Amino acid sequence: MDDTELTQLDPSYTTVMRIEGLLATLPFVIGAAVLSIAEVVPAWVPGVPVLILAIILIGILPLKRYRTRGYDMSSDRLRVVKGVLFHSDTVVPFSRVQHLDVEQGPLERMFGIARLILHTAGTHNSSVTLPGLRHEIATTMREDIRQHVKRESM
Questions:
Q1: What is the dihedral of CA 141, 137, 113, 64, to 10 degrees?
Q2: Is the separation of the CB atoms in 102 and 118 below 8 Å?
Q3: pLDDT in tens, the chain (154 residues)
């Protein structure tokens, strides 16, 4: 395992993950409300599990995911570390990179962050995604890696 200090992701990534958690919890909140209004079950019966789910998806999990993710970019490789339950430490040598993408969803665009995706040769795990980067940093990293790949192919 590499002991290099990892660069943390942009803090607004936790906000994006919290909003995604809120959106994932919303159908359960609506279902619990319908059950309570219809008086099918006492209000606390669906309310307690939904509250626990909301606390996990909105409060706890985004912070844990943020704290366990990071990256280290050297002159010839990118190391991406992630994982709350299942830890992953991936190193991508720039010589293996086929092409690069910088992607943003609507929430990411709203908060100015993006995902850098490195596509490598092969079929199994042939792409590595680094989410939660400030958009400017993602595009700069893409260009730095692209320049390195260009030099390697000459």
A1: 80
A2: no
A3: 556 789 999 999 999 999 999 999 999 999 999 998 888 888 888 889 999 999 999 999 999 999 999 999 998 999 999 999 999 999 999 988 999 999 999 999 999 999 999 998 876 768 999 999 999 999 999 999 999 877 766 5
